[in-house]
Design a protein that fits this description.
The complex is a heterodimer of chains A (about 500) and B (about 240).
Chain A lengths: L3 E5 L3 H9 L8 E7 L2 E7 L1 H5 L8 H7 L4 E4 L4 H12 L7 E4 L3 E5 L10 H14 L5 E5 L2 H10 L11 H5 L11 H9 L5 H4 L4 H8 L1 H11 L16 E10 L2 H22 L1 E12 L4 E12 L2 H9 L11 E13 L17 H14 L4 E6 L9 E3 L20 E12 L9 E4 L2 E14 L11 E8 L4 E7 L8 E7 L2
Parallel strand pairs in A: 2-4
Antiparallel strand pairs in A: 1-6, 1-7, 2-3, 5-6, 8-11, 9-10, 9-11, 12-13, 14-15, 14-19, 15-16, 16-17, 17-18, 18-19
Helix pairs in contact in A: 6-11, 10-11, 12-13, 13-14
Chain B lengths: L1 H18 L32 E6 L2 H18 L5 E6 L19 E5 L3 H12 L4 E7 L5 H14 L2 E7 L12 E8 L14 E9 L5 E8 L2 E4 L16
Parallel strand pairs in B: 1-5, 1-6, 2-3, 2-4, 4-5
Antiparallel strand pairs in B: 6-7, 7-8, 8-9
The chains are: A alpha+beta (about 500), B alpha/beta (about 240).
């Protein structure tokens, strides 16, 4: 059984302005837009309505009624923006919320209202919340979108249409209530069919011939013989969990409990489908209408509650509860099938696949960021700076093996530092070198090892590397850039050997 | 008679350690580091794993030597296929060089951070993770309370922690580490008349050993294992710098 709630904001724009400028409350003011040389009224305040000023009339006419009327410029799409904002706010009452231009929003309330203690209280809560925030609003609940829409705007007293009674509810309403085109409505009135009840039982073929297929569709949608769906503003992802709080939540421990509860429910579902979380977020809907959220990511898909809870707990500090959070929504934004690991009877071989390590890295990534965690794998380059690259994942392997023939220094400088060198004969190791104002007398040396620059990647000279040991036993990696050029060669220190 | 005397001495030593509150590790999974004379300095002559080791180094040359020595130790600790974490700020360690000491650089996870606070947090968190062989952190200074936290974390998980203190500024006396090392490079030696640079040689100085004793040692990394060597020529390098 589906239930839909339609909300109607008869003074959407003007109410919104009044919330921003409280002095406008109970004032006569309108929104206007120039149209074809005249200024047209697009929205009117409640007080203006009482004076007999309506939307779609001309500003000059309105000025005849109220000479000192206040005018504000309307903006294209302003009401759409407002509706989207309201619809996002209303997600706390139902996961599927759509906007209904120009002045309403629609909620799929199926299975939601009992959480507020019945439909009556559900509707009352929403309407009073909206009234409190300054919006005049009417709402109706029924089995179809069409009927809810009609009752919200044209209904006399009944705002909740009981199950399967939309037919009787519609009978006494004007044809405009079923969202017909202006032309059709006028023709119906001309024919004396000023109530839906007067034509609802007419044969379909007769109605189709006179008023077209569109009218029949709208009628069928209102009665419920034809299905109508809401286009949600936020598409509900398959793995989400919602937690309504009886009292707004503010404390850290309460948020932790909420996270645990949500994770337990979601992970149970994930586990039954063999899926695991890679990315997840928790959104907190605050009492003041704002949203606060935290996101986590994992290296391997998982549905282990303690681990995920730990990841979220590291980020609880980022949640700002302000006056309190009344609804939590946990969404698994990215899921992947879980690799099932065999439970070990005894401690097996640890390594990079070790679950403890994977979980540790998730926690670290949550706190310090994924970019700080690096693993290196070899690349097929002799050029020292390019001999290795960052691995994309923990599992990534490559067939390339580390170049092993020539020793590499334990510590390598990011940028080679120039040194002054005395080298007696071309291609002979230096006799001594001066680094940071200290003279090192070379006692042993190995080399040269020529490493050519990869000319297809960057221009420049080759390098001739020497391993030098000074008289104190310190070992260095020094290179000459380019060929030997008496007294003019550039020498650099590039690293320290163990 | 003599053998009996040795046994009695060994027995008494064990009793002393018990009285000092030292809890020996289970003897069946003792890792052999083949450090020769150095191991005799440790309680029960077993290289202590599952504790905090400190390495002091002043200059880049010393740091490179310490890193080489650490890599040699890592090779033993990681021989069961486990991995280790290397946490640092301004890291200069060149991963490919580790394989000369028997460590597969692909098995090492490097974490490069900016703040000491982050390094400490990461190290403590990592030390609690039982799947790791070792956690190395480059951190110049640490106070007693922080080192105590790290020590407590390692005692629970039995993961070895190594603090590589480059150019430490603060007083060195007050940390809760079990062993404090200082490794300095020494001139290499090749067979008479051969040119070139030989295997790395270090002067290893044990500055502090909890429940053990200190000492100076000469050690060489001979392709795939540690080897003690005797200083041949008259050569003296000031191994100890009085710190703290």
């Amino acid at each position: 059984m589906k239930r839909y709630l339609a909300l109607w904001f008869p003074n959407l724009l003007t109410d919104w302005l009044a919330t921003k400028k409280p002095e406008l409350k109970d004032q006569v003011y309108v929104f206007t837009l120039p149209e074809g040389g005249r200024i047209k009224i697009t929205a009117v305040s409640r007080a203006a309505e009482k004076q007999g000023i309506y939307a779609d009339s001309i500003l000059a006419d309105a000025k005849a009624i109220v000479p000192n009327i206040l005018c504000f410029d309307d903006e294209a799409n302003l009401s759409k923006k407002l509706l989207i904002r309201l619809a996002k706010w209303a997600i706390r009452y139902s996961p599927i919320v759509g906007i209904d231009l120009p002045d309403g929003i629609l909620l799929d309330s199926s299975g939601c209202s009992h959480l507020w203690g019945g439909e009556e209280k559900y509707l009352q809560t929403i309407l009073s919340k909206l009234n409190e925030s300054g919006y005049h609003c009417r709402g109706a609940l029924s089995d179809t979108v069409g009927t809810s829409w009609a009752i919200a705007r044209f209904g006399k007293k009944m705002s909740i249409v009981p199950f399967n009674e939309q037919y009787t509810a519609l009978l006494s309403l004007s044809p405009a209530a079923i969202r017909l085109e202006e032309q059709t409505i006028q023709r119906l009135h001309k024919l004396g069919l000023d109530k839906i009840g007067k034509f609802i039982q007419m044969p379909r073929s007769v109605l189709r011939r006179r008023f077209g297929e569109a009218m029949l569709l709208k009628l069928a949608q209102a009665i419920g013989t034809e299905e109508e769906l809401i286009t949600p503003i936020v598409i509900v992802p398959p793995f989400t969990e919602r937690l309504y709080c009886l009292e707004p939540i503010r404390t850290k421990s309460a948020i932790e409990i909420a996270i645990h509860k949500l994770l337990e429910a979601l992970c149970k579902r994930l586990a039954s489908e063999g899926m695991g979380i890679r990315l997840a977020e928790i959104k907190g809907y605050r009492l003041d209408g704002r949203l606060t959220e935290i996101k986590i990511g994992t290296n391997q898909s998982t549905h282990k509650v303690p681990h995920l809870a730990k990841l979220f707990e590291l980020k609880i500090d980022q949640i700002e509860p302000a006056l309190g959070i009344e609804l939590f929504i946990l969404t698994a934004t990215k899921t992947e099938p879980v690799l099932v690991h065999q439970e070990k009877l005894w401690n097996g071989k640890p390594g990079l696949a070790d679950q403890n390590l994977v979980q540790l890295l998730d926690r670290l990534a949550g706190k310090i960021g994924q970019q700080a965690i690096r693993r290196y794998i070899p690349q097929a380059h002799y050029w020292p700076e390019r001999a290795l690259r960052k691995a994309i994942s923990l599992e990534e392997k490559t067939d390339i093996i580390w170049q092993k023939a020539n020793p590499r220094p334990m510590e390598m400088l990011n940028r080679p530092e120039p040194v002054q060198v005395t080298a007696p004969i071309p291609d002979y190791p230096p006799m001594n070198f001066r680094y940071k104002d200290e003279l090192h007398i070379v006692s042993k040396a190995d080399g040269p090892e020529r490493i050519a620059r990869e000319w297809w990647m960057e221009p420049g000279e080759h390098r001739d590397y020497y391993i030098l040991e000074d008289d104190k036993g310190h070992r260095y990696w020094i290179f000459r850039s380019g060929h030997y050029n008496e007294g003019k060669s550039n020498w650099y220190l590039h690293g320290f050997f163990a | 008679m003599k053998a009996e005397k040795h046994e009695v001495v060994a027995q008494l030593r064990k009793q002393m350690l018990d009285l000092q509150g030292f809890k020996p590790t289970a003897t069946d999974d003792v890792l052999k580091f083949e450090l020769g004379a150095i191991e005799a300095c440790f309680p029960n002559s077993i290289f202590p794993i599952g504790t905090i080791h400190e390495f002091l180094s002043e200059k880049s040359e010393d740091t490179a030597a310490s890193e080489g020595f650490i890599a040699g130790l890592l090779a033993k600790m990681m021989q069961n296929g486990s991995s280790c974490l290397w946490i640092s700020r301004n890291r200069k360690l060149f991963p490919p060089s580790m394989q000369a000491f028997g460590v597969d650089p692909q098995q090492v996870i490097f974490i490069d951070l900016h703040y000491e606070k982050e390094i400490l947090w990461t190290m403590e968190e990592a030390l609690k993770c039982e799947g790791l062989a070792c956690v190395i952190a480059e951190l110049p200074d640490i106070d007693f309370a922080q080192s105590r936290r790290l020590q407590l974390a390692t005692e629970k998980s039995r993961v070895t922690g190594i603090l590589l203190r480059k150019d430490p500024k603060r007083s060195l006396s007050a940390t809760a580490c079990t062993v404090r090392w200082q490794v300095k490079p020494l001139p290499t030696a090749l067979n008479e008349g051969l040119p070139g640079v030989g295997n790395p040689r270090w002067g290893v100085n044990l500055l502090k050993v909890k429940n053990g004793h200190t000492g100076n040692f000469l050690i060489e990394w001979a392709e795939d294992h540690f080897e003690s060597f005797e200083q041949q020529e008259e050569y003296s390098v000031p191994l100890t710098k009085q710190l703290g």
